[in-house]
Amino acid sequence: MKLLEYEAKEYFKKYGIPTPEGRMVESPEEAREYVESLGKPVVIKVQLPVGGRGKAGGVKFADSPEEATIVAKQLLGIPIKGLKVEKLYVEEKVDIVNEIYLGVTIDRNRKQHVVLASSEGGMDIEEIAAKTPDKIVRFYVDPVIGLKSYHANFIASKLGYRAGMMRKFATFIASLFSLAVEMDAELTEINPLVEVKDGFLAADARLNVDNNALFRHKELEERLLDSYKGELTEREMEARSKDLTYIELDGNIGIIGNGAGLTMATLDTVMLHGGKAANFLDLGGGATPERIGKAVEFVLSDERTKALFVNVLGGITRCDYTAEGIIEARKKLGINKPIVVRMMGTKEAEGKAILEKNGIETLDSMEEAAEQAVKLAGGKQQ
Amino acid sequence: MTRFIDKNTRVIVQGITGDQGLFHTRLMKNYGTRIVAGVTPGKGGQKAEGVPIYDTIREAQEIHSIDASIIFVPAPFALDAALEAIEAELDPVVVITEGVPVRDSIELVARAKNRGTTIVGPNTPGVIKAGESKMGIMPAQVFKQGKVGIISRSGTLFYEIAAHITRVGLGQSTCIGLGGDPVVGLDYIDMLKWFQEDPETDAVALIGEIGGDAEERAAQFIKEEGFTKPVAAYIAGRAAIPGKRMGHAGAIIQGSTGTAQSKMDALKKAGVFVGELPGQVAQSLREVL
Q1: Closest residue to B139, CB basis, from A113, A267, A315
Q2: Superfamily, domain A21-92
Q3: Whole-angstrom Cα distance, residue A147 to residue A33?
Q4: Which residues from B are below 8 Å from A209, CB to CB?
Q5: Which of A341, A232, A266 is nearest to B238 (CA)?
Q6: CB neighbour list of residue B25: distance below 8 Å, 6 or more residues apart
Q7: In angstroms, what CA-CA distances link B15 with A214, B5, B21?
Q8: How many domains does chain B have?
Q9: Rounded Cα distance, B186 and B262, in Å
Q10: Hey, are the CB atoms on B278 and A366 less than 8 Å from each other?
Q11: Per-residue pLDDT at A382
Q12: Residue B163 is nearest to which of A247, A268, A344, comparing CB atoms?
């Protein structure tokens, strides 16, 4: 779950991470009032779950309440990267001495948290890694020991800070690390982190929380669907609300499988036979006829879908339930798009019997079924 | 890690009274797995599928000799359950549970490493020694005792390829699901090292998918450390699009990292046969065995 800058900064404040003074506003009046009370020049930033907002014109400056009103009017309601701007973050402008980078993420291979820091901030970390790899400090944290203050001192000192500034930066690192662990961050990042005359400030804030950990962060759980805006398409959003694992693609063959690996392999096999999948839908394990029906209905109701290919390898998923779900969904929708089913495993004979009675073709091999699906959808696409 | 599991491995089921725990305890027993006890806090003294239940592993160990654990408890309690098994010196500890937070997996894997415990999973279909014992949720009917070891990140695709291997007249030795999460206990390399020494394995099927670089690392290991048994691979996710999680938490292409093409290229360069279709893995292995 990706938090917006202003949401992330609420957590930053809780963890004692210094940020410039700021407030989220939703109208030009609010912007004016806030700048008036602040009495300083500000930066106004659109709040959207997409990167690159600066280049897209979503970051502007204002020196007075009047100017802030005009800028807010300009920004609110406009589309940036396909998303409507509804929220702005108004923040005091700071005198920057230097822009640096600090982030905490998870290294899959080492199975550890890693702190990334660089004296070259402002551009994204991939760019920093490409341009000045030797300027990135990577510090891997022992999960049993955690990040202690001597580790933070080491990182701060590696970045070239000494004396009071070293201690200040080390405290900053330690606070961000605590936040990363306690908030179950997949990634938290400050870019740029600005060095000012007497310390450091988080000018931007990124916080992506592990969806599997939302049971520990109930206050975020209810905002989950909202946070998908921008990341997911409309159909993907609808699928989430139906609790379906669905990804929209740009072809014309609807795909439903059970298990992520098998469903991916189904897409690949269709592609290899010259077809293009309209979607990825993973039923997961042990789906009921109702759940399967819901999935089939959702995929068939997509106008782009010319044919449906259901691929089920029955372990804890039952082939007879799969068949029942397909038949029910088709009845309910009254759509007669061609359907190819490949099923194998638990209750296979029963499932096939149900489908054949209803005139739906079943095949034993995934490859043959993929070939058939491509044919039924109107032949090769590439 | 001198053995994995076999017909003599005595297993405790943590979370034995949940739907999944009960269902799979029955199937594992039917397959021949020696399930000696179960744990569900608050249900000690009862029985499930004929297996005595205890409140804690420690109490079960006062009565039974236990070697290994399989965990079905819900995600918020999985770390606690796994630490209990690690402390009780059970090995391997197979974590079937899906949806475990990465922070918990990091802690679990680190503590297991310090104790020398093998963790399979989380979010794994488990491990099977074909014809002898299974600690997992895989359908028994697709496996037949033989000489091919399987290492996979996914579940159903693993069964698909196991079925092909059985159909071409080969069979399986030890097969393991590493798990579909970004952080899991075992990597391909750990298992390749184990298969190198396993006298019952003559060849390996390596089943990968998009996300991370575990397959690339496996390829490098095969090439540089000289894995001597034949390997055939399949990588899922060529049709996947970057930035989207394809079902598994770990199956995501980030920037240019984790693509199917990169994994396939790395494996081919290491001399591994890489199938375009899942069935070709079995055909290739039949030719070399």
Answers
A1: A315
A2: ATP-grasp fold, A domain (3.30.1490.20)
A3: 42
A4: none
A5: A266
A6: B13, B16, B35, B38, B48, B49, B51
A7: 22, 20, 6
A8: 2
A9: 21
A10: yes
A11: 53
A12: A344
What tokens does B115 get? 């104790």
Q: Tell me the CB-side half-sphere exposure of residue B43, using CA atoms within 13 A.
A: 15
Element (H, E) at B263: helix B260-269
- The position carrying tokens 């990167």 is A51
Residues in chain A: 382
Q: Do B138 and A265 touch (CB under 8 A)?
A: no
Instruction: Kindly list the domain boundaries of chain A, sorted by start residue.
Output: 21-92, 98-221, 234-376
In angstroms, the CA B149 to CA B62 distance is 35
ipTM over the 0.85 cut-off: yes
Residue B126 identity (one-letter amino acid): G
Q: Is position A34 annotated as part of the catalytic site?
A: no
- What is the pTM for the complete model shown? 0.94
Distance separating alpha carbons of residues A123 and B278, to the nearest angstrom:
42
Query: Are B153 and B100 in a shared domain?
Result: no
Query: Which of B109, B156, B254, B264 has the highest number of chain A CBs within 10 A, making it the mutation to test binding with A?
Result: B156
Q: What is the pLDDT of residue A224?
A: 86
Q: Which of B120, B153, B168 is the last residue of a domain?
A: B120
Residues of A with CB below 8 A from B247's CB?
Answer: 245, 259-261, 263-264, 280, 282, 284
Q: What percent of chain A has pLDDT over 90?
A: 82
Are B213 and A315 a contacting pair at CB < 8 A? Answer: no
Residues B216 and B92 both lie in one domain: no
CA within 13 Å, CB half, B227: 30
pLDDT tens digits along A121-174: 877 777 777 887 888 999 999 999 999 999 999 999 999 999 999 999 999 999
Q: What does the alpha-carbon distance between residue B203 and residue B196 come to, in Å, rounded to a whole number?
A: 9
Identify whether the C-beta of residue B288 lies closer than 8 Å to the C-beta of residue B282.
no
Query: How far apart, in Å, are the Cα atoms of B91 and each of A284, B39, B129?
Result: 28, 16, 15
Architecture of domain A98-221: 2-Layer Sandwich (3.30)
B149 and B87 within one domain: no
CATH number, domain containing residue B232: 3.40.50.261
Per-residue pLDDT at B1 exceeds 60: no
CATH code, domain carrying B47: 3.40.50.720
The set of residues, in sequence order, having a beta carbon less than 8 Å from that of A264 and lying 6+ positions away, is: A280, B154, B157, B209, B210, B236, B237, B239, B240, B246, B247, B251
CB-based contact B247 A143, cutoff 8 Å = no
- C-alpha span between A302 and A298 (Å, rounded): 7
Residues 225-254 of chain A with CB under 8 A from chain B are 245, 247, 249
**Each residue's pLDDT tens digit, B122-133:** 999 999 999 999
Q: Is B24 a catalytic residue?
A: no
Measured CA to CA, the distance from residue B179 to residue B186 in angstroms comes to 9
Contact criterion met (CB below 8 Å) for B128 and B144: no
